[in-house]
């Protein structure tokens, strides 16, 4: 007699708190009737430890927003419910910088230059609050209706030396980085973001991530001399 083993699929049903916007590694994001967005941790009745990790990351994110407080380059914190780990933030209608540039390749040089300035201001505000973001990428910069840039998503960040729970993707990773996060890691990633703003694609977008990392480790970086603020990008 032959037996077959079939995988067991366990479903988790979630009651949304508004209109669905998106899902991240840690949380769901819905839009409320008020117009704001709410982030809440992913439930997991089959693995309480995983659910606890999601709640802890939401607590880290809330602490980051509290520390940065009212800053024009960070989404405004509207409310935080510690019991339910629900975070309410202002809604940034134009979505992520990554998706916007993918759909608007004719963005003007003036707008791109403004974004470079705003991205730098945003990261400066984060570092001034003793936070290392640890995942500085175009998808974590958000745009409002006026196309002003905001840095977001601090769930995996290091706050005042806490251990981060996320790592930047290879094209944003500083070569030679150590086991503990440093501000320099974010600055290197910022250079890749500025390059993305100027060109519309990631560094070494035409090779796989391992090859891109090998280039970084060898000290070989994309040419930036012909780009606006190319020397600043290179210095990151």
From TrEMBL:
* Segments forming domain Protein kinase: 15-236
Known EC number? 2.7.11.1
Reactions performed catalytically: L-seryl-[protein] + ATP = O-phospho-L-seryl-[protein] + ADP + H(+); L-threonyl-[protein] + ATP = O-phospho-L-threonyl-[protein] + ADP + H(+)
Molecular function per GO: ATP binding; protein serine/threonine kinase activity
Note down the stretches annotated as region Disordered: 159-178
Specify the domain of life of the species encoding this protein.
Answer: Eukaryota
Q: What Pfam family is a match, any one?
A: Pkinase
Function as written in the Swiss-Prot or TrEMBL entry: Component of the EKC/KEOPS complex that is required for the formation of a threonylcarbamoyl group on adenosine at position 37 (t(6)A37) in tRNAs that read codons beginning with adenine. The complex is probably involved in the transfer of the threonylcarbamoyl moiety of threonylcarbamoyl-AMP (TC-AMP) to the N6 group of A37. BUD32 has ATPase activity in the context of the EKC/KEOPS complex and likely plays a supporting role to the catalytic subunit KAE1. The EKC/KEOPS complex also promotes both telomere uncapping and telomere elongation.
What is the annotated quaternary arrangement, including any partners?
Answer: Component of the EKC/KEOPS complex composed of at least BUD32, CGI121, GON7, KAE1 and PCC1; the whole complex dimerizes.
Tell me the protein's name: EKC/KEOPS complex subunit BUD32
Give the originating organism: Cordyceps confragosa
């Amino acid at each position: 007699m032959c037996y077959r083993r079939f995988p067991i699929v366990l479903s988790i049903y979630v009651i949304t708190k508004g209109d669905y916007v998106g899902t991240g590694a840690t949380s769901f994001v819905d839009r409320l009737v008020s117009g704001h967005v709410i982030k809440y941790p992913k439930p997991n009745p089959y693995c309480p430890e995983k659910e606890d990790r999601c709640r802890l990351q939401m607590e880290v994110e809330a602490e980051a927003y509290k520390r940065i407080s009212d800053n024009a380059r960070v989404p405004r914190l509207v409310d935080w419910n510690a019991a339910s780990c629900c975070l309410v933030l202002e809604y940034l209608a134009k979505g992520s910088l990554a998706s916007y540039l993918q759909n608007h390749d004719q963005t003007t040089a003036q707008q791109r230059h403004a974004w470079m300035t705003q991205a730098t201001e945003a990261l400066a505000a984060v570092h001034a609050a003793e936070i290392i973001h640890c995942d500085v990428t175009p998808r974590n910069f958000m745009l409002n209706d006026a196309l002003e840039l905001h840095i977001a998503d601090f769930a995996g960040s290091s706050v005042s030396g806490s251990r981060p729970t996320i790592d930047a993707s290879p094209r944003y990773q500083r070569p030679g980085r150590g086991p503990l996060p440093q501000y320099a890691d974010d600055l290197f990633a910022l250079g890749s973001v500025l390059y993305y703003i100027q060109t519309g694609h990631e560094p070494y977008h035409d090779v796989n991530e391992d090859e891109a990392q090998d280039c970084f480790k060898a000290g070989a970086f994309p040419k930036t001399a012909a780009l606006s603020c190319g020397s600043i990008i290179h210095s990151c």
